[in-house]
Amino acid sequence: MINKTIANATEAVRDVVSDSVLMFGGFGLSGIPENAIKALLNKDLKGLTCISNNAGVDDFGIGLMLKKHMVKKMISSYVGENAEFERQLLSGELEVELLPQGTLAERIRAGGAGIPAFYTPAGVGTEVADGKELREFDGKLYLLERWLKADFSFVKAWKGDTAGNLIFKGTARNFNPMMAAAGKITVAEVEELVPAGELDPNHIHTPGIYVQRIFQGEGYEKRIEQRTVREG
């Protein structure tokens, strides 16, 4: 069985170049590839297109890449927790494509499935529809949306094996499995890396066929954007 293990995050991003299209798994700060993002910050990269549900926060995750002006375009669904993102958007420094969350998820899934486009009712009659084809089905208008694919997809799993099979934990699963399928090169960082054959096949969420590189991450902060607790 092929061993896809690499040493660390630095090796994982070794061939990422400026102007690449990158996908980052995660929802808010849950399930983001923390180690890969830190390694990218150590490279002199510009002009990146980043596809992610959100833009992180100012001092963590993709937010750090924005601060370093590595990103020219964001394709996202929710961006409300990042002041630097807002500043760059309003100043014209950053190109942004905002999408309904379901549309973003389906465009990524379509990219992994080899489906170049699909019709959806989400966004019809709004700015989301600008410049896109409309078609009527059964008396209702639908919007044509194209697939999303990436040069590199960076995902984070709870457990993986040396063959690249992945298991996600709880809500940290989010966008990670579909992004793993939509990248030309998918890099997985995991909290626990085990030999191939040790994972129960019934529990695997992403088969190793979609993963080209895997490494065991370290020092995960697992931050929470906003913690709300009940008094008393």
Automatic annotation (TrEMBL):
- The answer on whether this UniProt entry bears the keyword Iron-sulfur reads no
Supply the alphabetized keyword list.
Transferase
> InterPro entries of this UniProt entry?
3-oxoacid_CoA-transf_A, CoA_trans_fam_I, NagB/RpiA_transferase-like
One Gene Ontology term of the molecular function aspect: CoA-transferase activity
Which NCBIfam families does the entry link to?
A: pcaI_scoA_fam (TIGR02429)
Q: What name appears for this protein in its UniProt entry?
A: 3-oxoacid CoA-transferase subunit A
